[in-house]
Amino acid sequence: MITIQNVNKRYKDIQALQNIDVSIPAGVCYGLVGPNGAGKSSLIKILAGIIKEYEGSIDVSDSGSLSLGYVPQEVCLEETLSAATNLQFYGKVHGLSGENLTRQVKTVFDDIGLTNRAKSKVKTFSGGMKRRLNIGCALMHEPDLVIMDEPTVGVDPQSRRHIFQLIRTLKQQGKTIIYASHYMEEIEALCDEVAFMDGGKIVEQGSIDDLLASYAQPAVFIKGDLPKAWLDSENVIQQKDGGWLFTSSNPMQLLGDLAKRCEEQSITPSQLSLMQPRLEDVFFTLTGTALRDAA
Ligand SMILES: Nc1ncnc2c1ncn2[C@@H]1O[C@H](COP(=O)(O)OP(=O)(O)OP(=O)(O)O)[C@@H](O)[C@H]1O
């Protein structure tokens, strides 16, 4: 368990973190999500020991001697050297040598899917390949806790999928992962628990399933040429993707009612479906605002 208590961080006149209290159980993938400037990187840098000046406490005492791998938001590689030399460097920093180093370099190359590019210079790599190698560097010493700051920025879908698979494998190995992102769908796909950050504060935290159940309701989505009177209904919560979202305490019944009304009035909607709540809906419900800089 990692316990973050009453952490505050100030950069001159900017209060980047305010009274942060978070508990991260061992073995979970824990998401930190929020718009640009929410304070995710500041909190992560404090956890990784990079920012040392802050108020409050971070306690990892009941985790014994926890080793930590940090994947920074910026790619930290020596571009003029080969991928293998970069991994070897990080391995040596952590005391690996000889056969142990060779074996671990091979394992990490397999994990990040770059075995056939081991000898290539990093400057010849795509953005996604650099991101994967950046993650590999943090895994050379087989850390118990892996902290990742927006590891998928600028990567193509193939690399993103590989990174997701790698994170799931790390979780299966029992590692604790802290994953910061402003992509809600990434957090939803990967994490067990999440803390929503906004303006330097934790707005809400908990298990993703619990938050979805507490804050967001299923809704009915309908798209088509609908009578205006239907859209003036107070059940319409949002216009979305050229259609409308209707809410109800009994969404299945509403789905049936709308289908019946369409049939009666010879309306053929191009889409009529039940929409399950998403993490993004929870965030909007909590903050009452759209993400200001969400991609
Ligand atoms: N070194 C610094 N000096 C001054 N202000 C900073 C510094 N680092 C961050 N800040 C400010 O602190 C606040 C929180 O920034 P932080 O980078 O922690 O947020 P973030 O959620 O990681 O954002 P992003 O998604 O853009 O990376 C912002 O207002 C930012 O401008």
Q: Helix share of residues?
A: 25-40%
| CA-CA gap between termini | 32 Å
CATH architect. name of the largest domain: 3-Layer(aba) Sandwich
- Form type: globular
CATH class descriptor of the largest domain = Alpha Beta
Query: How many domains comprise the coordinates?
Result: 2
Strand order of the largest sheet: 5-6-7-3-8-9
Strand composition percent: 25-35%
Do you know the CATH topology of the largest domain? Answer: Rossmann fold
Kindly state the number of beta strands.
13
Mean pLDDT: 90
- Main pleated sheet: 6 strands, mixed
Structural class: alpha/beta
Bound molecules: adenosine-5'-triphosphate
Number of helices, counting only DSSP H or I runs of 4 residues or more:
10
- Low-confidence region ranges: none
- Please state the CA-atom Rg, rounded to the nearest Å: 23 Å
Tell me what the structure shows.
The protein contains 10 helices and 13 strands. The protein is of the alpha/beta class and 295 residues long. The longest helix is centred in the middle third of the chain and has 16 residues, at 157-172. It is globular and about 75 Å long. It binds adenosine-5'-triphosphate. The site of adenosine-5'-triphosphate has 12 residues, from strand 2 and helix 1.
Brief synopsis:
This protein is an alpha/beta fold. It has 10 helices and 13 strands.
